[in-house]
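Protein in question reproduced for absentees:

***
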Amino acid sequence: MVEIVLAHQVDLATWRAATRHYVQKQVLPESITWRVAGKGQTPWVLEAPDSADNDAPLNLPRKLVTAVLEALQAHHPGRFELLYRVVYRFTHGLLDMENLREDPDIQQLRELVQSVKQETEQFRLAFSTFSNQHQSKSLQYTPQNYIVEANGRFCIERNAQPWEVMTPYRRMWWDGNQLHFAAGEAEAAHVSADMWQADGQGMWQGYPNTVLVPTLEDVAQAASLTSLSAEAMDCRACSLWQPAKRTVFGEGVENTPLMFVGEQPGDQEDLAGRPFVGPAGQVFDKALEEAGILRNHIYVTNAVKHFRFTWRNNRRLHQKPDQESVEACRIWLDAERRLVQPKLIVMLGVTAAQSLLKRPVTISRERSRIFQLNEQCSGLVTVHPSYLLRLPNEEAKAREYARFVEDLRLAHSFITQQSD
């Protein structure tokens, strides 16, 4: 009988190495036992490490690999045996591929995957709500499955500020630069500190991010800005998600009468995970204050949710988003409008105006007048605050800034009259 000792509940690296080795040695599933290491115990390694070099990669379908990675997070004592058995049977042609739905192992695998997916969505919603509140840096959460590690990247993308997630089995925290792991209170007595010091960062680097790519139905059914934002973190609708660090979603008040739409996040927004926090955001905040508008009473977002840039001299320089990205992100902007239900949308710059109006726009012709968008909402076009930063001299900057403030005052006056 072969015994495999895993370092922790989601020790993918050890499970994968052992499975790859013993499946190819044709060791039967019933001849292997699996368990998680207790305090002072060391995880499994091959007695002859060099023999691992002779193990060829297992040729598995992507769909099966994805299911295995998700099911490994399930709180089920027999999951390691089940997953080994499924991989073994597939590799050696023992699965009836025409009747997979009736196979007991495959049925159980699907149940574990569904359980993990459901809790992943619940955890992400809880983390998003926690991040939006800005009141505490620590989230207390009690998961039914071992889903914390696989959502580390999601949490960083959702909240770039330092935070901590405390669960009975795992503590995870982000210090603004690195992600760290330690045993939770319930597991601390059973896991040695040395194991965590050696394994914490390796586990983060080695365990894949759980990606729940949103569907149109997911977007349409989102019942709050928090849940919509959580869905958007895994958006893959255009290519910008790859170079950018994170999705930068809108923020502000739900059901507010005043909504502002910009172009896309910039370098500072991409790092912070919040819209309008860089140089243009500082100009925007100053102008809002002069116009009598409180930022925490409005909703602010962008037409495109990822930062498009080019590298130059080790700096990320803004590039205007292409039409593909504008079109891809419109589902998010439409959903934000549905949930915010603004009476007036202020379009900051050409990209925002063209995304909302769905036609070519010249700012000088459209600017500084309020017009009807639909029966429930009006629109106002003005410049983007970054335009003011690019003006060549102080006189032009002062003149255009004053005009920008007047546009915002026009928006404030309109909303005030609507509420009277």
Remarks:
- The longest strand covers residues 2-6.
